[in-house]
Amino acid sequence: MFIVSVTYQQPLEVVDQHLADHLAFLDRYFSQGTFIASGRKVPRTGGIILATGVTREQLDAILLEDPFNQHKIASYEVTEFEPNRTGPEYAWFLSL
C-alpha cells in the first residue's frame, strides 16, 4: 500500500483551473480499485491519495498521468507501508 502526499507548487487559482481534470484522473483509478481514498490537506496545500494493488513502478507511471503532474502544478512524495494493525472495525483494511 502507498500513501501519496501531493503538494501544490502553484497558487490555488492555477490548481482550480485543472481540478476537474485531476478529479477525472482520480475517478479512473478509483474505478479500477487502485485508489482507495483521497482528499485535501488542511490547510489546502495539496492532498493525500491511498493506493493499493500496484508496484511502486506502476504507481509512478500512474502519477505521470495526473494533470497536476503534467502541468507542473504539484509534486509527489510516495511512502510505501504494510499495515499490520487496525481497530477491530477496520480489520478489512488489512486485506487490501
Automatic annotation (TrEMBL):
UniProt domain YCII-related: residue ranges: 1-81
Organism of provenance: Trichlorobacter thiogenes
SUPFAM superfamilies (alphabetical): Dimeric alpha+beta barrel
Domain of life: Bacteria
Entry similarity comment: Belongs to the YciI family.
Protein name: Uncharacterized conserved protein YciI, contains a putative active-site phosphohistidine
InterPro entries to which the protein is assigned, alphabetical: Dimeric_a/b-barrel, YCII
